[in-house]
């Protein structure tokens, strides 16, 4: 049986938990060109009324706060959705959206501008993304009003968008796992350890990718999410399952496909179309990249459909996290998968069991 102290020494070079936590909270300002290939600042051709951060904070209509990266979103001039954050990942979202604008079958907000400003006191940078404002109810707001047929239709529409995403080719002779333009993810992503250059990835093989996922899981166990001195056998079994079970899969399951890692109800907007139906717009794209074909199933099962489970849990001061009726999870997942096409549920199940035992998330 391994001890927690031994794991801390292995991954962080010290068994002092306070030193490890200090390392974990330490931030660096990475050069923008390390994160993205697109040159910023960027402004779409012909656009002349881009609001500054100061104008947005003074006159914008507050829409929401994205807690994962402490980003605030405002509506400005009834046509712009302006997202402001202190995290560099906002530039990656801008790059992702600019890439997706070229894919006609996908419904995404247009990017009008993306830029960086210093905080007024000069202490930190602020990143700003100015997008098209997409009006309409989001998934959370509409789900409870739908009958079973309507819920199946909504799931199918989401699946169709994901199928379009998964059909996008890498256009390279050397397949990889990573972001658009061959870049890695932000060092703050949840399921991968950052490398010495600050980014996580890209990776050239499925084996390399899964070895890094397993490393991050082991780091998380060592970091102290389990209040123990010796690592429990159930946790060791989950780590072994993650290392071995998900590595040994078919070439089709290993195939890199564009994957959305942060599908949450508030990020899915319904907009009526001229067919008497509606179109689905996914409006948040911070975490997207080419990953094994089965990973999207993990995100669906342990993020989006998780929210519609019949759970009576609230966080103080916030709206209910969970909403839905008994059976909604399976109904939604099945209807989405009808749209996406087949995904290896066995591998999804292996990862799901690991995630119940090990603190590992995709964002």
TrEMBL record:
Residue ranges constituting the Aminoglycoside phosphotransferase domain according to the UniProt record: 71-293
InterPro entries: AGP_Transferase (IPR051678), Aminoglycoside_PTrfase (IPR002575), Kinase-like_dom_sf (IPR011009)
SUPFAM superfamilies: Protein kinase-like (PK-like)
Coiled coil: none
Protein name: Aminoglycoside phosphotransferase domain-containing protein
Organism of derivation: Lophiotrema nucula
Organism classification: Eukaryota, Fungi, Dikarya, Ascomycota, Pezizomycotina
